[in-house]
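Much of what follows relies on a compact textual record of a protein's fold. Each token is a code from a learned vocabulary of local backbone shapes. The record below shows the convention in full.
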Amino acid sequence: MAIAVMISVAANAHNVMSEVEDSITVSTEKLADILVEEGMKMIGTPYRYGGSGPRAFDCTGFTKYLYKKFGYDLERSSVGQSKQGREVSGSWSNFQKGDLVVFAARRNASRVGHIGIFIELDSSGRDFTFIHAAVKGGIQISHITEKYYSSRFLGARRILPDFVSHKDEKVMEALPENTVIDVRDTLRLQEGDMRVLLMADGRWMVIGDDGSLNVPKDTASIVLSPSGTWSAIKHVSHRIPSRTDPPRQALVENDTPAPEAKYHTIKSGDTLSSIALRYKTSVSALCRLNGMSVKTTLRIGKRIRVK
């Protein structure tokens, strides 16, 4: 797991779409949650080759349609999408919600043939769920442990910015005015980058070339990856529509709206069984709607879909 160190407290807003009325600003993590929630509202929508939605989709029609809701324009083909964003290397623990997961074609293992969207790695680290438009069953949630998918899995691509693990951050605190630090005690990622200093009490400071306290203009984190390399990640926010429902003409042909999704916020003591009983559903249905298994840890404060 990467270690993130906060080195600035200034705000940096990044809009992935133009200013629109009735919009909200969210973090990258929240955007990924909303993107997947929107995809889950479409579960059961039938598959159709060349389908671009909203009544039917093929795999890349679904991913393109979903990402376009939030200002990201993906290629239409699976080969094209497999080259967009940036590669997510290393173990599955490096994947984050919203990443594109890439699979080989059914009849040609050397060619990209299918795309889905990563949801969550399970607590064992040996299985993850993804949402996609499958030939059999349309939009659904599947597990990488299913032989059909595990044998064809090629990797993942990241379209959204990287998440930053806030639990590992050390927030910079102000040094006394005119404090000077010996620059030989500081760390610089590469020539031209800022210098950082780890204090004895665990705090990180940003230091100028002359040894003085230097506050960068943008919010950023210094991240140490498991491979031992350091990189800087800016904290970004995204402006998205506050409503992402499909337009009126996107409803089914009889013009009857699909049932509205219902969510439950996890509280202390909740179990999948107790939640299923409360909402008159089943544990298997909850798992299917949320890309979970019965072994998934329920985190207090997290919202799960129940209808």
In short: The chain has six helices and 16 strands. The chain has a mean pLDDT of 76. Residues 221 and 233 are 5 Å apart (CA to CA). The first strand starts at residue 3 and ends at 6.
